[in-house]
């Protein structure tokens, strides 16, 4: 009998993706520096409350990214990464990457280019979606990571997590104005995802999703959120006092880039504990919507429709000019619309093509496995001949 999915965790996926969409509505719409430099002193003096609130909301999107990888680590540490799952993820990325590239050209949001076509056909290789590229690469490492996790001592696991925390969380803060230095020392999206996977797995080993840890979850979530908002307020305040835009521009530095922010990580772990310790009965409606979460990301954050979506369709470039509460309401309404439409698009795709996609993925996985066994056999023969 097919195992039912935990609807509390599926609901957490939905919330996480909603916050990621809201984050993108802010950074690619409401505070998109490509349209207006919001962080000049005159702009901040005129619209400081709204800008501060939008800066404060940025961390929730980073938290959402971290939650996705934590969940993967928690549930995959005792499971096997299946090749067919990787192919299915890749196929969805390919469909939306190429399909939305063609759509963007059709509506005049993007001019055709050979480079754009190649990137859309090979979106994982060319990182058309940074999250999916990092996630797929991490997923390919899961078999090796799980072998390490299940054989290493708790002290060794902790040491590796601490080293990755240093390179992926602390160093990007130290080198906030020189990100290449942090990258050179190991701070990449892929290593950050591996760190999150290890933390999720460690939560499983230590059985942290139990009611007695709810207080820990509350402290982590609310303490991190308050700490982040306080850091934004301090940096914005320094900018106003010194009349230097540098501090205002870097006010969200502790939210991190990608998923490596120290406060975003604390919030993600805390919320995961809080939601994970409140199980709810399996609900088909929740699980159905949650099945489209990654596709919601692929649809709304496609690089070729992103400017068209946030600026042409919703005109979010002017949201900072409105009163703060109206800006928040507008962003939330836009986020709901985008999330619902993207979910319906993906449900339609699954309803029409899911069987075909499953067959294609199963066939591809079989062919790859057969080819891999053939190559292993040939390699064994060559090695045998060389060692005679």
Automatic annotation (TrEMBL):
Top-level taxonomic group: Bacteria
Keyword vocabulary terms for this entry: Membrane, Transmembrane, Transmembrane helix
Acyltransferase is among the record's keywords? no
Q: Where is the Acyltransferase domain?
A: 8-344
Q: Which Pfam families match?
A: Acyl_transf_3
Positions of transmembrane segments: 12-31, 51-77, 89-109, 129-147, 159-176, 182-199, 219-241, 253-274, 286-305, 325-345
* UniProt protein name: Acyltransferase 3 domain-containing protein
- Organism field: Lactiplantibacillus pentosus (Lactobacillus pentosus)
């Amino acid at each position: 009998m097919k195992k039912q999915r935990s609807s509390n965790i599926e609901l957490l996926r939905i919330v996480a993706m909603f916050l990621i969409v809201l984050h993108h509505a802010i950074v690619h719409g409401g505070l998109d520096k490509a349209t207006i430099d919001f962080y000049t002193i005159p702009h901040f003096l005129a619209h400081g409350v709204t800008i501060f609130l939008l800066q404060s909301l940025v961390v929730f999107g980073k938290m959402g990214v971290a939650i996705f990888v934590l969940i993967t680590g928690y549930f995959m540490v005792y499971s096997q990464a299946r090749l067919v799952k990787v192919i299915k993820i890749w196929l969805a990325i390919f469909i939306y990457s190429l399909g939305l590239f063609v759509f963007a050209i059709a509506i005049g949001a993007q001019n055709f280019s050979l480079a754009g076509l190649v990137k859309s056909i090979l979106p994982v290789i060319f990182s058309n979606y940074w999250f999916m590229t990092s996630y797929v690469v991490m997923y390919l490492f899961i078999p090796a990571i799980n072998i390490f996790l299940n054989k290493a001592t708790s002290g060794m696991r902790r040491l590796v997590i601490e080293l990755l925390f240093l390179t992926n969380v602390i160093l990007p803060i130290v080198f906030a104005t020189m990100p290449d230095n942090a990258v050179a020392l190991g701070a990449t999206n892929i290593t950050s995802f591996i760190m999150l996977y290890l933390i999720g797995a460690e939560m499983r080993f230590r059985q942290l999703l139990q009611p007695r840890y709810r207080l820990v979850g509350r402290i982590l979530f609310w303490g991190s959120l308050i700490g982040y908002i306080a850091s934004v307020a301090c940096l914005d305040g320094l900018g106003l006092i010194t009349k230097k835009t540098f501090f205002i521009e870097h006010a969200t530095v502790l939210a991190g880039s990608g998923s490596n922010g120290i406060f975003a990580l604390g919030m993600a772990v805390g919320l995961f504990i809080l939601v994970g310790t409140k199980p709810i009965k399996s609900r088909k409606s929740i699980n159905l919507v949650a099945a489209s979460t990654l596709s919601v990301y692929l649809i709304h954050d496609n690089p070729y429709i992103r400017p068209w979506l946030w600026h042409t369709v919703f005109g979010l470039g002017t949201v900072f000019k409105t009163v703060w509460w109206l800006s928040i309401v507008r962003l939330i309404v836009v986020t709901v619309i985008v999330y619902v439409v993207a979910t319906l698009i993906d449900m339609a795709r699954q309803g029409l093509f899911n069987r075909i996609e499953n067959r294609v993925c199963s066939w591809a996985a079989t062919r790859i496995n057969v080819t891999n066994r053939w190559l292993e056999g040939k390699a064994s023969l060559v090695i045998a001949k060389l060692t005679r």
